[in-house]
Amino acid sequence: MILTICAACAAPLAHDAPRCIRCKMRYCDQTCQHDHWRRGHKQMCKKIHRGGNAEQYNADKKYKEAVAEAVEACAEDTKGQTCYICTQALHWKTKEGLVRGCACRGTAGFAHVSCLAEQAKILVAEAEENNLAANNYAVSLRDLERFEDAKALLRKPMPVARRVLGENHHLTLRMRLNYAEALYKDPGATLDDLREAKTRLEELAPYARRVLGGAHPITTGIERSLSLLQATFRVCETPPPPGSA
Asked: What is the residue extent of each domain of the chain?
């Protein structure tokens, strides 16, 4: 869970906003950080750090709140039922109750959110492995200057990666970068292809800077490609000198 507002004043944050050294909580500036420390962060800082630092801690907290709310809302419907994944009424570890799927029929509709989360992790791991293989193959095709094949290969797994792994996952970012590069490096690229590549890179750059930082190879690769495209457009848009026609 990416923190986008200051923990002290709730103002929107820049991608390079200062953080607490220990727990990585994000703030507008040192004034907000010192104020938050005095108002109770001092007592919570170690706990947040042990919980995986600010972003993970906040994500886990919201997850637990959402699970508790869902279990309470489904309590009447799930009486006497068991989870279709683990076959238990109470989760063995979290002791949480059951929820019911909104459009499921029969016993397949009852499950623990924790069981669903574990099942999703397995599916995500499989998706990551498949997408990594597709991405590596596409890079090889691009390097062999088989640009159309590289683009065709990436079109299907890219939206899957964005949906399953998330917009901020390094593999999603890498696949989107490689697709943009296959677009503009093709000698037969049209002006529309170049515009599409530029738009894709402009959308991608803030994600990469925020998640990976400015020095990460993916971020520098995006910014390098974007600089090349911007230079290309400047040349295309510069009118010829008088009398050169």
From this structure: 1-52, 70-111, 130-237
- Superfamily assignment of 130-237 in CATH? Tetratricopeptide repeat domain (1.25.40.10)
pTM of the model: 0.53
The per-residue pLDDT for range 39-80, each reduced to its tens digit, is 999 999 999 999 899 989 988 888 888 888 888 888 888 888
In whole angstroms, how far apart are CA 198 and each of 149, 163, 177, 180, 204? 20, 22, 11, 8, 10
Burial 121-140 (b: 16+ CB within 10 A, else e): eeeeeebbeebeebbeebbe
Enumerate residues 6+ apart whose C-beta is below 8 A from 32.
6, 7, 8, 9
